[in-house]
Specification:
The chain is an alpha/beta fold. It contains eight helices and seven strands. The radius of gyration is 18 Å and the shape is globular.
Amino acid sequence: MAALLTAQFFSPAKLIMVDLDDNRLETALSFGATHKVNSSDPEKAIKEIYDLTDGRGVDVAIEADGIPATFDFCQKIIGVDGTVANCGVHGKPVEFELDRLWIRNINITTGLVSTNIIPQLLKALESHKIEPEKLVTHYFKLSEIEKAYEVFSKAADHHAIKVIIENDISEA
């Protein structure tokens, strides 16, 4: 969801949110996404994205999960001269389809939040253009940490977007 909010700074004509969770997709629409695509059937989702982009593919694909399947998906939907922005934290290697992508003249960026955009994010927060508190769907006390992890591990079942954990354990 953070990638969706940040992408809006660049005023894209279309902002396509891709996820497996229909609740997250509906939430994304309420936060400014123009289209939603459920990727539970990746081939169908790829076709849907190409249909939405008149066969071009996307200009920017933001990989925010850090798993090989989502990186692979981004490679399949990126258009000519596009950018795959990889901000997901990967714990496993991914396959890079250089044999297919080299002719498309794509760029790949890696890393977390760029410090160049922090001032813009802070101004958006101050002006309430971005309201991250609306992303919080569940609150837990630190003493309920196991329950919090259970809810977040099954986010789709609990309609969880972001979970806040507050300290209720005093130091002895």
